Amino acid sequence: MPLKHPFALDVHQQSSHIVKMSDYIDSSMSFCKLCPRECGADRSIAPGYCGGGPAARVNLHRLHYWEEPVLSGTGGSGTIFFSHCTMRCVYCQNYRISHEGRGAERSTEELAAMMIDLQEAGAHNVNLVTASHFTPQAAEAIRLARAKGLRVPVVWNSNAYEKPETLRMLEGLVDIYLPDFRYFDSATAERYSEAPGYPERAKKAIMEMHRQAGDLAVRDNTAVKGLIIRLLVIPGLHESVRDILAWIRDALGNETWISLMGQYYPVHRSCEFPEINRAITVTEYEECLGYLDELGFENGFIQEVGSCADYTPDFT
Fold first, then answer.
1. Which pTM was predicted?
2. Which tens digits make up the pLDDT trace of 231-243?
3. I need a surface site. Which of 189, 209, 245, 314 has the fewest CB within 10 A?
4. What is the residue range of 195's domain?
C-alpha cells in the first residue's frame, strides 16, 4: 500500500538483575507501586490511578507504518496499544484509550499470541505502546512469546514516567526502549499531565533503559537494540527542549538517537489551556533543530510540523 511517512531519517545524515515475576504480579496488584505515584491501589478490587485492573487491557494490535523509519521499516512495526495510562496529558492524541480506557482485558497467553501474530504478519518488531502500568503482565507475555518462537525485537514505547525497579522486570526481555522525555519542569508536568516529579523520574528511568539496552544499534536499516528518545515539541515549551537535550548530552552522550516530533495538535482538553490550544509554529520547531546542532546531536529523526492526525490509529 502507498504510504506517506511523518519522519525524515537522520538529522544530518541478559543480566543478573532480571526480576522473577511469578510472585510480583500478585503483590503489585494488591498494593500497586508500579509507577512513581505508588497509589497503593488493590487492583484486584478496584482500578489504580492509572485505570488499570488486575489484567492487561488492550485496544488493538496491528502493523503500524508511521513510527520512526528504523522501527517501521518496510513491513511495519507490530504495535500493541494498551488501554489506560499513568499520566493525564490534557493534549493526549490517544485519549480514547489512555483516558477513556477503551479496550478489552487480555490474558498473558492472549498477549503472547498477539506478539506471535504480528511477527507472522511481517512486523520488524513487537511494539508495546504505553504498557508501563501492566509491566508484570507484559513481562510474562514476552517470556511466553519467546518460548513460542518470538524472534523479532521487543520495543517498550513509554512516557518515561516510570520507576527503575519496575523497568528491571524487563531486563533481558525488551530490546529497544522508546521513551518520551516530555518536560524539564515539574510544575509544567503537573499542569498538563498530572505527573508530579516527572523530570527527575524520567531521568532515572531513561538512565535505566540505557543501562539495559545501550545506544541504538541498526542492522539493514532496522533497529535491533538500544535507545531512541522522543521529544515532543509543545507550544510555548520549545525552549525546554534545549534543557532536555543538554541533560541527554551530559548523561548519555550526544551520539544518543533523538526523535524530534512536530506532530503536536490541540485535542482532548487542550481547549481548557489557551497557551497550548494551538499547533506549534515552524519557528518553534526550527529553534529545536538549532539546539540539536548546537549540542552536537547527529543521530535521529525529524518531522514536518503538523504531522498529526493522519498517523493516529482509529481506536473506536
1. 0.91
2. 999 999 999 999 9
3. 314
4. 7-311
